[in-house]
Amino acid sequence: MTLMVRDEADIIAPMIDHHLSQGVDLIIATDNGSVDGTAEILEGYAAEGRVVLLHDPVHRKQQGVVVTQMARDAASKYGADWVLNADADEFWLPRLPGRTLHDVFSEIDPGIRSFLVNVIDMTGPPALVGTGLQRLVYQDLRTVEEMNAVGLHAHSTPNAVHVGDPNVSVVQGNHLVSIGSQGAPPPELEIEVLHFPWRSWDQFSRKVDNSGRAYLNSSGLKPSPNHHGMRDFHRLQDGTLYASYLFRHPTPEELTAGLATGSFALERRIADAIVSPVADVAVDAEQSTHERAFGKVISGLEFQIRNLNSGLSDKTELTIELSDRISVLTEEIASLTRQLAESAAASAHIQELYDALHNRKVVRAVDQVAEAISKHRPRR
């Protein structure tokens, strides 16, 4: 297994322990200039001979290059039959219980060369701090429409597994490799990944800031408009990311309803097997209610803006209609702010959020609409 990691001290030890217990023979890890103790944890495993530890402190989006070299070394230096390119917040498992990764990979036909593994995002109640393996015990199976409604673009993309090859290339994100697939494992040998990307506000906000600044430091690298990390980075800069973080997590009522409809599924394999190194610190319930309300408004506004941008070229009437909708949303934000400001305990923080939202998001959105209308309104 290859692993490029930065500032994941809250989860890196259980992640490594899990995969070693699953029969992964060797983990080649590159620490990307961590400052939170991650490197020291990795050094402990390296001293025991269970991890080959490398260092690359450059903070640019060079994951594809670094992982490619580790994957090539896995074959040329360590004789790997199969290579799994993982992230620190991923736990790889056989889909069927009672077996290990070593069991299934010893039976998978190497003639298929490479195949994709489904990545399942895990969710549950939010927290200020904490690893959250006993809290995030629900597979997030919401539809794309349901994801969009809470400000998310889509679920995580599948990961690529490949046979050991000294000439392999791994694409940024570990989702594609240069080795063409010749098939897929049979159902009884399928692999899946349980993904824990939003373990706490402390971890998530730091990850977003690290990732966004790495993109800004990478000249010539332009993220796609739907890049989830950069959207969250802009939210962090706007002061609205905490509201978005809370809103994307289901409430207890939403979890109950989602379990009945199939939007969520209980998943305790990791929770029951691994202890979380960092204890959870719950969010403030009253403040959480206020922030979630902002998150809902923000998500609605962003959805309107995305629709507007996708149809500006030849949809003048739609542009004008969305302009009216954004005006209504702006009024709703002002009304909501006035209501929330009546709560003395939350008023100062709410005003800060409103100012950030109004000055950066709404004004920007209205300016976009005004420009669009001036370009596309029919001349009389």
What would a concise description of this structure say?
InterPro entries: Nucleotide-diphossugar_trans. With 380 residues, the protein is of the alpha/beta class.
Q: Structural class of the secondary structure composition? A: alpha/beta
Give the low-pLDDT segments.
none
C-alpha Rg (nearest Å): 23 Å
- Identify the CATH class of one domain: Alpha Beta
N- to C-terminal distance:
65 Å
- By DSSP (H or I, 4+ residues per run), the number of helices equals 12
CATH architecture of one domain: Alpha-Beta Complex
- Tell me the CATH topology of one domain: Spore Coat Polysaccharide Biosynthesis Protein SpsA, Chain A
What is the residue-mean pLDDT, rounded to a whole number?
Answer: 85
Question: SSE string, helix = H, strand = E?
Answer: EHEHEHEEHEEHEEHHHHEHHH
Description:
- This is Glycosyltransferase family 2 protein.
- Pfam families: Glyco_tranf_2_4 (PF13704).
- It contains twelve helices and ten strands.
- Helix 1 (12-21) links the parallel strand 1 (2-5) and strand 2 (27-31).
- The longest helix is centred in the C-terminal third of the chain and has 30 residues, at 347-376.
- Among the domains are: 2-121 and 155-195, Spore Coat Polysaccharide Biosynthesis Protein SpsA, Chain A (Alpha-Beta Complex); 284-380.
- It starts with a strand and ends with a helix.
- It is α/β, with parallel strands linked by helices and 380 residues long.
- Strands 1, 2, 3, 4, 5, 6, 7, 8, 9 and 10 form a ten-stranded mixed sheet that branches.
- The chain is globular.
- The model has no long low-confidence stretch (mean pLDDT 85).
- It has helices spanning 12-21, 38-47, 63-76, 101-105, 144-149, 201-216, 228-238, 241-247, 252-261, 285-310, 316-340, 347-376, and strands spanning 2-5, 27-31, 51-55, 82-86, 90-94, 114-123, 138-140, 159-163, 191-195, 264-266.
- Helix content is 45%, strand content 13%.
- Helix 6 (201-216) packs across helix 7, helix 8 (241-247) packs across helix 10 and helix 10 (285-310) runs antiparallel to helix 11 (316-340).
